[in-house]
Design brief:
Blueprint lengths: L8 H21 L6 H11 L6 H14 L6 H18 L9 E2 L2 E2 L1 H5 L1 H19 L7 H15 L4 H9 L8 H26 L4 H28 L2 H4 L5 H4 L5 H5 L1 H19 L8 H11 L4
Antiparallel strand pairs: 1-2
Helix pairs in contact: 2-6, 3-4, 3-9, 3-15, 4-6, 4-9, 7-9, 8-9, 9-10, 10-14, 14-15
Length: 300
C-alpha cells in the first residue's frame, strides 16, 4: 500500500520553524570564545547552511511520541555538531579531498588543515559536553543519549563506514556490503537522531523499535539519493563537486545496480519506513512521513 503524503503549507511552516529553533540554539552555543580562530572555524561549518535533517528528525521523533518537540532540543543540537564535525573531516585531502561544501570553500580551504582538524575535534567533544550538562536535569535520558550518539559516531558506526568507503575500490563489492557501508557511514547518525528524539519523548520499547526501523530505512534511502545526485546534480544545486564518486572509483548502489534500480530501492525503503510508523500507536506520524518524502525526493 502506498501512502500519499503531499507537502502541506502547515508542514513547511513547521519545518522552517524547527530549523529556526535549531539555528538559534546553535548560534547561542557557538558565540565566539577564545581562541577566536577555533570558534570561528567551528561556527563556519555548523552555521553555514544545511538542511538540518538530523536535528529535525530528532525533534519530530520526540513529537511523535509525546506531542512536543522541545524536550529533544539538546539532543538535536548535539547530533548536528557531530554531523558538522564529520563533514569537516570528510572534506580533508586525506579523506574525500573536496574543496567545496554547501557552495562555500570547505573548512580546510578557509582556515587551513590544522584548524579544520581541531575544529572537527572540538565540535565532537562539544556535542557530548552539551548532552551531559547537569542543567538539563534528566540524567537517565542523558546517559542513553550519550550512548546512542557515541555508538553512532564511533568505530562501530560512522567512523567504520568512512574507512570502508575509503577502501571500497580495493575489492569487488556486493549489494549487501554497499548497504552495510551506508548503514554505518550515513544511517547510523540518522538512526541515533531519531532514537534520541524518541527517548526525549519517553518512548516505550515498541515505539522505539518502530521509530528505529523507520530511521534505518530512511537512512538507506537518503544515502542512495545522495549517490544518485552525485551522478546527476550540478555544482550549483549540490554546493559541492559533483561526480566525485566516479572520479574516486567509489562503489555505490547506483554504480553497482544502475540508476533505475537504485530509485526503486529508494521507493521500497520509503514504503517500509511509512509502514512501520503505522505499526504502533504514535501521537503524530504525519510529520515524520512528510519529512521522509521531502528528503528522498529532494534535488539538492
Amino acid at each position: 500500500m502506498r501512502y500519499n503524503v503531499p507537502m502541506t503549507t502547515s508542514f513547511e511552516t513547521l519545518y522552517q520553524n524547527l530549523q529556526a529553533a535549531v539555528d538559534d540554539e546553535l548560534q547561542t552555543l557557538l558565540c565566539h570564545h577564545q581562541p577566536r580562530l577555533l570558534w570561528e572555524s567551528m561556527a563556519y561549518s555548523v552555521l553555514g547552511g544545511g538542511k538540518r535533517l538530523r536535528p529535525l528528525l530528532c525533534l519530530l521523533a520526540c513529537e511523535a511520541v509525546s506531542g512536543k518537540w522541545q524536550p529533544a532540543l539538546p539532543a538535536a543540537q548535539a547530533v548536528e555538531l557531530i554531523h558538522a564535525y564529520s563533514l569537516i573531516h570528510d572534506d580533508l585531502p586525506a579523506l574525500d579531498n573536496d574543496d567545496w561544501r554547501r557552495g562555500k570553500p570547505a573548512n580546510h580551504k578557509e582556515y587551513g588543515e590544522d584548524i579544520a582538524i581541531l575544529a572537527g575535534d572540538a565540535l565532537q567533544t562539544l556535542a557530548f559536553q552539551l548532552l551531559s550538562d547537569p542543567a538539563i536535569r534528566r540524567p537517565d535520558v542523558q546517559v542513553r543519549w550519550v550512548a546512542e550518539l557515541a555508538g553512532a559516531a564511533g568505530p562501530m558506526g560512522m567512523c567504520a563506514g568512512q574507512v570502508l568507503d575509503l577502501h571500497a575500490a580495493d575489492s569487488v563489492w556486493k549489494e549487501a556490503e554497499i548497504l552495510d557501508v551506508y548503514r554505518r557511514k550515513t544511517g547510523a547518525l540518522i538512526r541515533a537522531a531519531v532514537r534520541m528524539g524518541a527517548l526525549a519523548g519517553g518512548a516505550g520499547p515498541e515505539q522505539l523499535q518502530a521509530l528505529t526501523g523507520y530511521a534505518e530505512d530512511l537512512g538507506l534511502a537518503f544515502q542512495i539519493v545522495d549517490d544518485l545526485l552525485d551522478l546527476t546534480g550540478s555544482f550549483e544545486a549540490l554546493g559541492k563537486t559533483p561526480g566525485k564518486d566516479l572520479m574516486q572509483d567509489k562503489k555505490t548502489y547506483p554504480a553497482l545496480l544502475g540508476q533505475a534500480e537504485a530509485r526503486q530501492k529508494v521507493e521500497s525503503c520509503l514504503l517500509r519506513a511509512r509502514d512501520v510508523l503505522f505499526s504502533v500507536p504514535l501521537l503524530q506520524t504525519g510529520h515524520l512521513l512528510q519529512i521522509a518524502e521531502k528528503l528522498v525526493h529532494r534535488e539538492t
